[in-house]
Amino acid sequence: MSFGVEVQDLTVEYGRTVALERASLTLAPGAIHGLLGRNGSGKTTLLSVLAAFRRPSAGRVLVDGEDPWENPRVMAGTCLVRESGDVEVDTGMKDTLDYLERARPHFDRDLADRLMDTFELDPRRKPTKLSRGKRSAFGAVVGLATRAELTLFDEVYLGMDAPSRHAFYDALLEDYVEHPRTIVLSSHLIEEIERLLEHVVILDRGGVLLAEDADVLGARGARVTGPGPAVDAFVAGRRVLRREQLGPTVQATVDATLDDAARAEAHAAGLEVGPVDLQSLVVHLTAKEPAR
Ligand SMILES: Nc1ncnc2c1ncn2[C@@H]1O[C@H](COP(=O)(O)OP(=O)(O)OP(=O)(O)O)[C@@H](O)[C@H]1O
């Protein structure tokens, strides 16, 4: 019960604003995908198209092999949770859960009730009367308990405090292991979600900057530290994302996967080589004018 996604040359325009321009990507079924990128890079727009909330201006989107637009089968298997969407804010939460239990084929009411307890949500209350973080937590409950074939969480953590966010991540992972499905997490809190991700898509200015399996990405990028001239000689010809100097010591972040020979070369030159975490990689790759 997992939907895969194929996006080909997707363009979405809002009047004269081009939110996505010829974006192409594939999301394999049954995996947790991270959708990352700076503000305005097009994440919400992409998720809205996948959930058939919005129509492409051009290009093709296939969810489980079919165009999701006005497609009852695909729409029934897709759940988009975002701050403003998918939960009735002026209806008591119990009524919303009752409705979802009837309307969504895989909805797990026991899980929903357990998560309501975890997030200390009173089912008699309406989301409009809740704090922002509690409203987000209810979105998380709905998204998890719906167990849709394609579950899209658009910055679901907004307003949630750290313990609630971690409770959400733990619940997601636990339920995903039991019930694998396709999950897309759009987030700016990259450090927090990194451990959950099997595949990462980075959007930048409406295009796909990178789409890679998390383990491949984990080996991409290196931090080279040592005496300035030796570092500069080593990184010459490689793509330098950032160069920092502290007295005679230089630390250069390069966008390169260093093989054993390159690491031995660095070691022989008296340099230290360390990994680059995903957050830093995203920051450097999407910086306005990356250092070369
Ligand atoms: N309803 C709209 N009308 C006009 N322009 C819009 C609309 N929604 C989004 N945009 C524009 O489309 C672009 C992409 O926006 P989108 O919300 O998809 O980005 P995002 O990556 O989700 O951003 P954030 O991280 O800030 O949530 C931005 O330039 C934004 O200003």
Brief sketch in words of this structure:
With 292 residues, the protein is of the alpha/beta class.
The overall average pLDDT, rounded, is 93
Bound ligand species: adenosine-5'-triphosphate
Please give the oligomerization state of what you see. single chain
The tally of structural domains comes to 2
- Which regions contain 5 or more consecutive residues with pLDDT less than 50? none
Element string (H = helix, E = strand): EEEHEHEHHHEHEHEEHEHEEHEH
User: Gyration radius, to the nearest Å?
Assistant: 21 Å
CATH superfamily grouping of the largest domain: P-loop containing nucleotide triphosphate hydrolases
Protein name: ABC transporter ATP-binding protein
Pfam families: ABC_tran
InterPro entries: AAA+_ATPase (IPR003593), ABC_transporter-like_ATP-bd (IPR003439), P-loop_NTPase (IPR027417)
Keywords: ATP-binding, Nucleotide-binding
Write up this protein.
Residues 5-230 form the ABC transporter domain. This is ABC transporter ATP-binding protein. It holds the Pfam family ABC_tran. Keywords: ATP-binding, Nucleotide-binding. InterPro entries: AAA+_ATPase, ABC_transporter-like_ATP-bd, P-loop_NTPase. The structure is a single chain. The chain is α/β, with parallel strands linked by helices. The chain folds into 2 domains: 5-214, Rossmann fold; 221-275, Alpha-Beta Plaits (2-Layer Sandwich), CATH 3.30.70.260. It contains 11 helices and 13 strands. The protein has helices spanning 43-50, 72-76, 93-103, 109-118, 132-146, 162-178, 190-193, 214-218, 228-235, 260-268, 278-285, and strands at residues 5-14, 17-27, 32-37, 58-63, 78-82, 150-154, 182-186, 199-204, 207-213, 222-227, 240-246, 249-254, 272-275. A 6-stranded mixed β-sheet has the order 5-6-7-3-8-9, with helices on both faces. The radius of gyration is 21 Å and the shape is globular.
